Amino acid sequence: MTDFQHMTPITIARDASLDDANKIMALCHVHYLLVADGQRQLQGIVTEAGTRGHRPLAIAHTMGVRPGELVVGDVMIKQHDEVEVMHLRDVHTARVGNVVATLKELGTPYCLVVDHDEEDNHILCGIFSLSRIEREMGLAQSAEIAQTFSQVVSSLGH
Question: How far is it, in rounded angstroms, from Cα 19 to Cα 29?
Fold first, then answer.
């Protein structure tokens, strides 16, 4: 787990351009950015896969805009709707294999890890990244899991 008590997460605003997001990810050597508002409240997560390829093209088509007009908020995985979350108490004693199996079962390359404060509010404390776990363990990298027919078709071209 990337522990946010030991490493400050890299954030971006939801109105930032996809080009800016890609530049920040490249400069910081990361594959995701946390999307935060002005009060540093988590809004979601934007991934490298979400800023390139078929996802932004499909979203731009749906919105009736050019892909270059999209902003991070258009392609981010929204915190309350789509981001997978694990509780720190549940993963505290988990083995790496359990985490990898859970991420694969959920069909997601990322999962936020939260703890609770005294008022039982969620406190973001880390993130699991399937590709990072696989890279650090010397395992073969998993291909992104196709969720739609267009993703399957686009993956055949690679």
Answer: 15
- pTM across the whole model: 0.76
Query: β-pairing, 77-78 with 110-116?
Result: unpaired
Host H or E run for residue 135: helix 130-137
Q: Which two tokens stand for residue 74?
A: 């258009």
Distance CA(68)–CA(97), nearest Å, equals 39
Q: Which of 16, 20, 10 is nearest to 40 (CA)?
A: 10
Contact (CB, 8 A) for 87 and 115: yes
- Give the burial class of 147: count Cβ atoms within 10 A of its Cβ; 0-12 exposed, 13-18 middle, 19 or more buried: exposed
**Which helix (DSSP H) or strand (DSSP E) does residue 151 occupy?**
helix 149-156
- pLDDT per position as a tens digit, 50-99: 898 888 999 999 999 999 999 999 999 886 666 788 899 988 888 988 89
- Cα 150 to Cα 146: distance, rounded to the nearest angstrom: 8
Report d(CA 118, CA 13) in Å as an integer.
28
Residue 59's nearest CA partner among 31, 33, 78, 38 is 78
149 or 104, greater pLDDT: 104
C-alpha to C-alpha distance for 53 and 57, rounded to whole angstroms: 7
Q: Residue 94 and residue 83: Cα distance in Å, rounded?
A: 20
